[in-house]
Every structure is written in structure tokens, then in C-alpha cells.
Amino acid sequence: MFRYYFSYAILVWTFWEVLANKTNTPQSRTVSTNPLLIDQVALYQQQWFAYNAVKENEIQEKMAGIERAIEGRLMVLQQKMRLELQELQTTVANQSEETLEKLRTSLRIIPQNFQKIGKRYFYFENVDTQNWFSAFNTCRRKGGHLATIYDGKELKEVFRRSPPGAYWIDISNAFKKGRYTSTLTGKDPPFFDWNDEKTEKIGNDECVTVYNYKMHTPDCFRKFSFICQAEQWV
Q1: Where is the signal peptide (predicted)?
Q2: Which listed site, 11, 30, 37, 118, has its alpha carbon 20 to 30 Å from 186?
């Protein structure tokens, strides 16, 4: 392209000299401009403008390609950082829960005669049978609470270790008529597993026992064995 620049400069200079001579020549003398020279200058101008346009398009395309590459890398980096942040949050949450459970265990004073079943501690009273209200108070005096059973697996684990018989647990409708609640939370119990004879009708002052791994609803003032848990909180 250098030869184009050089030729273009020579032609422009020559054209300028011709115009200058024409200006300095008396009007009686007529100097004609060479049409071929003007056409050549115009041709080089067109080539120069075309070259500039091509180069400008090439630069713009390269810049656009660089921008797309940067955007793609940023998206990949953002996705990677998002995944790493989620993993970190999960790890922190798990560690916090483990730490909290260890703290609870270290601060927990296990009442006497309570035995560990699974991750919790329970006490079975099968000698001194009591009604549901007396059993509730007895568990509190022992430093615990009438037991809440959280799922079927725990029910089987706990009552597999219990002496034979029916046991009061922490479910009753004595405080909210027509609705079974847990006195530990004041809300619906986390788990039910009724016996086959249980009907949808709810009587007055019905409390819940567990017998043969099923839940029954005798009158709260009948006397049965009972099971306490060590926790006095949810």
C-alpha cells in the first residue's frame, strides 16, 4: 500500500503545480488540465477510502470478537462462582447444625435412669401406672417431658426396647377440643400411626397411648405405663 500513498502524493503535488501555473499565467494564455491526471487522482482517492473502510470493518469485527470472548469467559466465571458459593453455603449450614447439636448435647443434663435410643434419651415407667395428666407431671419432675415420637422408624426403635404394655405419649385433645395436639409444641404432632379400629370421630378427653407399635386413644383418666423423653424443648 505504500506505493499507493507515494503515487497519490506525487499526483496531488503535480495537480497542485498545474493549478498554480494556471493561476499565474496571463489570461491570454490558456493552460488545459490533463483529464487523465484528474481521473487517476480520483481513482487513488476511491482506493484510499475503500482501504480505510475495509480496515475499519476488520477492526470493528476484531473488537466485537474480543467483546464476545470476554462476555463468554465472564459468564463461565460467574457460573463457577455461583456453584462454589452454593457449596460453601451448604458446607457452612451443615457445620453450623453439627456444631449446634454438639453444643446442645454438651449442655444437656441427662436425667437419671434415661437410656439412649437412637440420638435421644427415654425413660420407661411400667411399674407405677398413672393417668395421662399424672404421667405428664411425673415426666416433668424427672427433668423430662412425655415423649414425642417423630416418625415410624423412631417409634419402632423406641418401643422395641420397652417392656410389654401400653404407654402414654405426648398427644392429647384435652386442651383443644376436637383436635389432637402435642403439649411440647402446642401444635399438631409430627407423626400419627393409628390402630386399625381408630375412627375419624374424636371423643372428649382422649389421650394417646402406643401399644404393639400402633396408636390408641383411651380416656385420659385411665391408668397406663408411660414414656418420658429427656428434652424439655422442641
Answers
A1: 1-20
A2: 118
